């Protein structure tokens, strides 16, 4: 089954929490408690988000995490890439030679279309969309 990893789900929840805070900042323990995420697991997620330039971390007495960009500048494609890498519903969307069917595979175009749709959706959604709408900004919900 095609699914989003827990790491990405938690990362988006942590970013949404930060985006709702005044100054877009909080300490890791606060985020972990509010979002019911293991503090150690969250630390790894926040480290990846910091390496990708999506959050900034500060050590010390007044340390914590802060969004590195405004919520409307945090693109979901960047979040997913930072936490899980490129979206690939199947391995062959990026390269041939994975299986013996290669160019004769009648379903490869379907998988490429799915990847394109996912990439487009993630590229057109921001953290602001999540915190303002809670869902797809184009949906009736």
What do these coordinates show?
- This protein has 141 residues and is mainly α.
- It has a single domain, classed as Winged helix-like DNA-binding domain superfamily/Winged helix DNA-binding domain (Arc Repressor Mutant, subunit A), CATH 1.10.10.10.
- Helices cover 48% and strands 7% of the residues.
- The chain has a 3-stranded antiparallel beta sheet with strand order 1-3-2.
- Strand 2 and strand 3 form a beta hairpin.
- The chain starts with 5 loop residues before the first helix and ends in an 8-residue tail after the last helix.
- The relative contact order is 0.15.
- The C terminus is likely disordered.
Number of domains: 1
Distance between the termini: 25 Å
Spatial shape: elongated
Overall mean pLDDT stands at 86
Which CATH top level class fits? Mainly Alpha
Query: What is the H-and-E element order?
Result: HEHHEEHHH
Radius of gyration: 17 Å
- Per DSSP, the total helix count is 6
Quaternary status:
single chain
Total strand segments: 3
**Which CATH-level-2 architecture?**
Orthogonal Bundle
Q: Largest sheet, if any?
A: 3 strands, antiparallel
Instruction: Tell me the helix content.
Output: 40-55%
Q: Per CATH, what is the topology?
A: Arc Repressor Mutant, subunit A
CATH-wise, what's the superfamily?
Answer: Winged helix-like DNA-binding domain superfamily/Winged helix DNA-binding domain
Q: Please list the strands of the largest sheet in the order they lie side by side.
A: 1-3-2
Supply the helix-strand structural class.
Answer: mainly alpha
Proportion of residues in extended strands = 5-15%
């Amino acid at each position: 089954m095609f699914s989003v990893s827990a790491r990405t789900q938690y990362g988006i929840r942590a970013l949404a929490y930060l985006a709702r805070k005044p100054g877009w900042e909080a300490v890791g323990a606060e985020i972990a408690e509010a979002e019911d995420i293991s503090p150690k697991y969250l630390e790894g997620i926040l480290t990846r988000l910091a390496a990708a330039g999506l959050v900034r971390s500060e050590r010390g007495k007044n340390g914590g995490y802060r969004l590195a960009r405004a919520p409307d500048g945090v693109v979901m494609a960047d979040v997913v890439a930072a936490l899980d890498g490129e979206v690939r519903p199947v391995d062959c969307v990026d390269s041939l030679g994975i299986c013996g069917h290669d160019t004769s595979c009648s379903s490869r175009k379907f998988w490429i279309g799915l990847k394109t749709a996912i990439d487009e959706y993630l590229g057109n959604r921001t953290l602001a969309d999540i915190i303002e709408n809670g869902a797809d900004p184009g949906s009736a919900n």
